Structures are given as C-alpha cells and as structure tokens.
Amino acid sequence: MVQDGDVIRATSKGIDAYGQPVGAVWTITYDEREHRIEGGTDGDSQRLVRLDRWTTEATLTRGGRVIQTARREVSRDGKTMTLTFTGSNVRGQPIHNVMVFDRR
Asked: Taking the C-alpha atoms of 69, 60, 8 and 19 in order, what is their torsion angle to the nearest 10 degrees?
C-alpha cells in the first residue's frame, strides 16, 4: 500500500479458506465516491469516508449492492487500531470480524 495525501494505492494477494488464490488492486481516496476494484473476489467497488481524525469507514459493493462495511478506529494515543468488518462474503455467508492491533 502506498499513500500520497488522501490517495491510497493498494495491492492484496493471498489464499482464501478454500485454498484458492485471491487478490485485488485498487486506488481510492477519502472522497465518498465509488472506486473500482480490479480482480476483487468479494466486491467490485468501494467507497471510503474519513469520519474524523481517528475514524474511517469503507463500504464494499458488488453490482451496486452493499455487501460489507469496515470501520477503522485508531486510539487517541495512536497505539491501538481496531478494524471491524460486517456484511457477507462472496458465498453470501455472514461475517463479523474484529481485529485489534497494538503498536509496540
């Protein structure tokens, strides 16, 4: 991932739970508009909103329908980041994932 101001360029690669390769490439800004995802398996576009200095929300869509939302919250001291994902995966199964990262 590379960030230049509010422009983020990212590439992801991995293996899904079924052993299949997955990956995507996207460029997005905090402008509340839909931006295309190339090669994404879950969604084909996303929208990113900066709610405040510490919080952002992303909305992932496929075919114009919202399938996932993600919220990123950074603690005021900058030492903890919490990511919360809700919605459904590409198979339509519900997801609710919370990840907490601590800076050392």
From this structure: 100
Q: Quick check: 2 and 9 in contact, CB under 8 A?
A: yes
In this structure, what DSSP letter does residue 1 have?
-
Across-strand partners of 45? 36, 61
pLDDT band at 89 (very low <50, low <70, confident <90, very high): confident
CB 60 within 8 A of CB 66: yes
Q: Give the E-state strand segments of 18-93 in sequence order.
A: 21-29, 35-38, 45-52, 55-62, 65-74, 80-88
For the whole model, what pTM was predicted? Answer: 0.75
